[in-house]
Amino acid sequence: MSTSQDRADTPEDTAAGTGGDTAAATATAAGPAGAGEPLLEVDNLGKHFPVTQGIVFKRQIGAVKAVDGVSFSVRKGETLGLVGESGCGKTTTGRMIMRLLDSSFGKITFEGRDITGLSQGQMRPLRRDLQMIFQDPYSSLNPRQTVGAIIGAAFKLQGETPQQGTRAAVQELLQLVGLSPEHYNRYPHEFSGGQRQRIGIARTLALKPKLIVADEPVSALDVSVQAQVVNLLEDLQDELGLTYVVIAHDLSVVRHISDRVAVMYLGKIVEVGDRNDLYAKPMHPYTNALLSAVPIPDPAQRAGRERIRLQGDVPSPLDPPPACRFHTRCWKAQDICKQVEPPLVELSPGHQAACHFPENTTVSQTDLVAKAAVSPGASADGAADAPQAQE
Amino acid sequence: MAGKASKARGAETIDTAATGAAAAHTPSAFLEVRDLKIHFPSDDGLVKSVDGLSFELERGRTLGIVGESGSGKSVTSLGILGLHNRRNAKVSGEIWLDGQELVGATEEQVRRLRGRDMAMIFQDPLSSMHPFYTVGQQIVEAYRIHHDVSKKAARKHAIEMLGRVGIPKPDRRVDDYPHQFSGGMRQRAMIAMALSCDPELLIADEPTTALDVTVQAQILDLIRDLQREFNSAVIMITHDLGVVAELSDDILVMYGGRSVEYGSVEDVFHRPEHPYTWGLLGSMPRLDRDRTERLMPIKGTPPSLINLPPGCAFSPRCAFEGLTDGKATTERPELRESAPGHKVACHLPAERRRQIWAEEIAPKL
To answer: CA-CA distance, A178 to A172, in Å (whole number)?
Structure first.
């Protein structure tokens, strides 16, 4: 896999501080079962938003570490789900992949090409391959343009004239997403939320993209309509061979549409794994807590269910806790969690977790602790900023 | 109209003679809503937000009202609290709270009850708290309106309430402004404010929709614990079937301003009889079951409340509409008892409904 080569070029790799064997494990984020080749690779990507003080002379007094070194890859034709609570950096990650936000550090590789430093002009031809579905179908469509103009803009911007003409092409797209061709001349306000989201999806599909980043594509919709859009996204994937990165906070929706799932907490990925594996055997305590917090729509289960209740709120990303960021709320936390950041390591095939005391695994805890302990550099923020001293 | 608005807590008797024509009915439940209609005239026509709703609720019980946006669930709660726009809204029907009729009561009468006997937790705590006053000042204000106590005593009460809803260091946080609280803490403060007067009816309108899932779990636990402690009646309004299943004793499913199914939580989740309830259950991906290949969405979109479809409001989206001999599109179905305590508004024969659920719907969920 080409992943290992890419990783070798980046000295400030998160995994670099954790010793050779774990670096190799991290590199195969795609997992061994990888059928398709990786379409998108994200390597130690981070975004720090500066916080400034002063009016004339602004000086930086801190940084919001929205995303602090995440690495993953997405194979052709698969769906990767990014889940986490608000403020965990999932949307920032999605926007960086789209290059709507410049990353502070790290590398984004799309189809083997490094797109991290490309200018807006250089990005433009790539935009046809990389598209985004936005959360809010009300604010993401221009109210003064007709549906035809909104969807047709994609062709115009890329200077492309479809064979059958723009109008016919747009009408085909409308049909593809379950709207009728007569909607061509209507305005967004004439549609319901679910229909608007379909318009947004039609616009996304106009140029036959390879990768679609969908940021909370269904969270603004009613339950019954949500299911329609979820089914539509799945049908389109089968029909057009699309690859999705789906960002969502709803764990049940993510399980339904993703092949693999990455769980984020405070700017870091704490666990990645195959959908079934991750939901059936969550390893990271945070994943366990998240899953147990989801209300189950079955009154028969409310008595017998074992619940994990996290105390307090997510800490501020301005000043994240040192070492393992979850230790302030974790019931398994011990001294080592406050001192040494646990690396994201593969604990079973295709399933990685960043925890000193993972659950549902055969890897012994002493092994893990020993591994982490020999890499004293793997501290919370050090991993990103400074190259780590290897043992 | 209730002659005495004075509070007679726990008293079942009320001066019914003064209630005029409606006095024929003696309410038995703590809260009883009968044929409630809340209509708003607009330029486009009459918006029938709530159109003939009936339910009852006892102390210590929780009623979950489920529905999609525009189903009238929030308007119902505002109507009970008297928070709807009195100039615009046309309200008819009956709302009996502890023997007092609220429909037609004066603003002043309702104001005396609101906060003390009935309180509300809103969806978005940031926009429902005043940004200019500290959290403490807002709780103190709510408390002092109904209790003749000194500012100092009220402040002490506010601190106690904040502590009870799990805010750390309440004696210091009481002087914080709402923006200094996190989302979950704000919702806790909101609950503290709502409970400061020990209300007997608590209405929670999407109390956790704006919160993260781990915080949602904390807040739901809190509401459950406080309800046990205060023995209050709770109305939980939400679109999330998971939340109602966790908390409710009874469930009312609303569609297009009307109730389509009403029964115990077991009735609605284990033996649902209305096609809309089936649709809601089939639309949801579930974590507690093996993943289904495809979700079973309801076709179409929720109706406009101005132009409700004739007959059954759900008929254009219903997969079984054809089995009613055309009744679904011409005649509005009444909410009828299908089994003891389980009411359904559907033209399909009850036998057929149970058969469809058992053979066609349940196996696919």
So the answer is: 10
Q: Are A200 and A140 in contact (CB under 8 A)?
A: yes
Determine the Cα–Cα distance for residues A269 and A151; give it in Å rounded to an integer.
Answer: 35
Residue A215 has which token pair?
């940021």
Name the residue facing A227 among B266, B283, B301 (closest C-beta).
B283
Which strands, in side-by-side order, build the sheet including B90-97?
Answer: B45-57, B31-42, B90-97, B100-101
Nearest-by-Cβ selection for A299 from B218, B266, B286:
B266
A302:B245 CB<8 A: yes
- Among chain B residues, the shortest Cα distance to A259 is held by B291
Contacts with A230 from chain B: Cβ below 8 Å: 285, 295, 297
The residue count for chain A: 391
**How far is A270 from A289, CA to CA, in rounded Å?**
13
Q: A223 and B212: CB-CB below 8 Å? A: no
Question: Would you write out chain B's pLDDT as a tens digit for each of its 365 residues?
Answer: 444 444 444 443 444 344 444 445 667 789 999 999 999 998 888 999 999 999 999 999 999 999 888 888 889 999 999 988 888 899 999 999 998 899 988 989 998 899 889 999 988 877 888 999 999 999 999 999 999 999 999 999 999 999 988 888 899 999 999 999 888 888 889 999 998 888 999 999 988 888 888 888 888 988 998 899 889 999 999 989 999 999 999 999 999 999 999 999 999 999 999 999 999 999 988 888 877 778 888 988 888 888 889 899 999 999 998 888 888 999 999 999 999 999 999 999 999 999 999 999 988 88
Cβ-defined contact of B284 to A296 (cutoff 8 Å): no
Asked if the model's pLDDT at residue A8 lies above 50, the reply is no
Give the start-to-end residue ranges of the domains of chain A: 280-373
Sign of the four-CA dihedral A205, A209, A210, A212: negative
Mean pLDDT, rounded, for A267-288: 94
Complete edge-to-edge strand list for the sheet that includes strand A38-53: A59-75, A38-53, A105-110, A113-114
Token pair of A297, please? 């729509």
CA A48 – CA A210 distance, rounded (Å): 28
Residue in B216, B221, B287 nearest the CB of A291: B287
**Rounded CA separation B56/B339 (Å):** 17
* Nearest CB to B214; choose among A231, A234, A290: A290
Min Cα–Cα distance to chain B from A173, Å: 19
Nearest residue of chain B to residue A310 (CA atoms): B214
CB contact under 8 A, B242 and A297: yes
> What does R_g of chain B's alpha carbons equal in angstroms?
21
Q: Do B214 and A293 form a contact (C-beta atoms < 8 A)?
A: yes
Nearest chain A residue (CA) to B69? A222
For residue A110, the distance in angstroms to the closest alpha carbon of chain B comes to 30
For chain B, what is the total number of helices (H) and then of strands (E)?
A: 13, 12
What secondary structure does DSSP assign to B48-70, as a single string?
EEEEEEEEEE-TT-EEEEE--TT
Give backbone dihedrals phi and psi of A367, rounded to 5 degrees, phi first.
-60, -45
| Most B CBs within 10 Å, among A298, A311, A328, A329, to test the B interface | A298
Distance to chain A for B57, nearest Cα, Å = 19
CA distances from B283 to A10, A224, A229, A256, B334 (A): 45, 5, 11, 11, 25
